[in-house]
Structures are given as structure tokens and as C-alpha cells.
Design a protein that fits this description.
- The chain is mostly helical and 212 residues long.
- It folds into two domains: 88 residues, Endonuclease Iii, domain 2; 100 residues, Hypothetical protein, domain 2 (Endonuclease III, domain 1, Orthogonal Bundle).
- 56% of the residues lie in helices and 0% in strands.
- The protein has eleven helices and no strands.
- α2 packs antiparallel against α6 and α9 crosses α11.
- It is elongated.
Length: 212
């Protein structure tokens, strides 16, 4: 099977099993709230982040409220997501930058987005995908692991995995691939205990495990 055939088969199987999975797993209202939620999602589940942000966005209802927040108060508010000191510092600094240099308007350019404290390519691509609907590939742990198992990349570095996927996936499928693979990784191809029997991607899986 050529890589082109493998890609076509994988995408067809994903579309058949997850036809509507192109929505964001993080809860937010305003664009800046998605940036904050994604910063909090590092090393934390989306479910826990959604619990935290439900209260957080009520406590800090605007960019200005986040910008003027005290570090200690923010740490307490996001403590449950882990790495709370760094996340609190980055959230406050990011909102200060958004207010001071962008007048509260979220930029869409990835180079501009990655200037914000705590924002790497993953967070920037989440914002680009769900706020601006720009074709973007988000490489989280599920996407990295399953893309590797499918033989669509030999890389383990998220940026290199992103670049490999950009080369082989049609742009129209970039956003959908992210959410479909994340859904599949949570429900079927679970890390350490995959449910291979009946898996829609089994015919394309090389069953490679990431070794560290």
C-alpha cells in the first residue's frame, strides 16, 4: 500500500465513523477564552479544563479583568489544571499583550499568535482552526501517537509531525483530522490499552508504539 493509498483509506474511515467530529472540545465564548482554555489544557484533560474555566470566566469576565488579575489569585483559580504557577503567569501576560498591542482583537497569523506567553504552535493552531476557520493541524498527544502508529510520520516531535501531515493531508481535512483522531484516541485507540478489535483504522495501523 502506498502512502497516498494509506492516507485516502484513513481519511475515508475517519469520515465514515466520525462524520460530525469537527467541533472544539474546550468550552469558550469569546476568542480570548479559547486561548486561555488551551493554555490550561497543557498536561491536563479537556474535561477538567472545562470545569475550571466555567468558574474562571465568571470570576474574570473580560480581557481587562484577566490583565489586572493578581498572580496569587490566578494561581488559586487554575490550580486544578496543574503547572498552575506558570499557567497563571502566562494567562495574565497574554491578556496584557492582547489588550496593549492588539486592542483586544485576536490575531490570526500563527507567527503573531506564538508571540503570546504560553502559546506554542498547538495553541495557535487551535485558535486558528476554531476562531478563524483556517486550515490548521493541531498535534496533541493523541494525534502524535496515532499518526505514528498509522505510518503517516516517522517523527515524534510535534512540529515535525505537523509538517509531515501538512504535506500529505488535503487542507480541507486538516481541522477534521485533528478532532477525529482525538475522538478515536479517547474512545478506541486508548494509550496503553487500544481496542484493536473492530477498530476502523486497523487495516492501516502498523501497530508501532512510541518508545521513549
Amino acid at each position: 500500500m502506498t502512502k497516498k493509498e494509506r492516507v485516502a483509506g484513513v481519511l475515508a474511515a475517519l469520515d465514515a465513523h466520525y462524520p460530525h467530529d469537527d467541533t472544539c472540545f474546550l468550552h469558550y465564548g469569546a476568542p480570548y477564552q479559547l486561548m486561555i482554555a488551551t493554555i490550561l489544557s497543557a498536561q491536563c484533560t479537556d474535561a477538567r479544563v472545562n470545569i475550571v474555566t466555567e468558574a474562571l470566566f465568571k470570576q474574570y469576565p473580560s480581557i481587562e479583568a484577566f490583565s489586572s488579575a493578581k498572580q496569587a489569585d490566578m494561581e488559586r483559580a487554575v490550580h486544578a489544571t496543574g503547572f498552575f504557577r506558570e499557567k497563571a503567569k502566562n494567562i495574565i501576560a497574554a491578556m496584557q499583550l492582547l489588550s496593549a498591542q492588539y486592542n483586544g482583537e485576536m490575531p490570526s497569523d500563527i507567527d503573531e499568535l506564538t508571540k503570546f506567553p504560553g502559546v506554542g504552535r498547538k495553541t495557535a493552531n487551535v485558535v486558528r482552526s476554531h476562531i478563524f476557520h483556517l486550515p490548521s493541524i493541531v498535534v496533541d498527544t493523541h494525534v502524535k501517537r496515532i499518526t505514528y502508529k498509522l505510518g503517516l510520520t516517522k517523527e515524534l516531535d510535534p512540529v515535525k509531525v505537523e509538517r509531515d501531515l501538512m504535506k500529505i493531508l488535503p487542507k480541507a481535512h486538516w481541522i477534521r483530522y485533528n478532532t477525529q483522531i482525538i475522538t478515536h484516541g479517547r474512545a478506541v485507540c486508548i494509550a496503553g490499552r487500544p481496542r484493536c478489535e473492530g477498530c476502523c483504522l486497523e487495516a492501516y495501523c502498523m501497530k508501532r508504539e512510541i518508545r521513549r
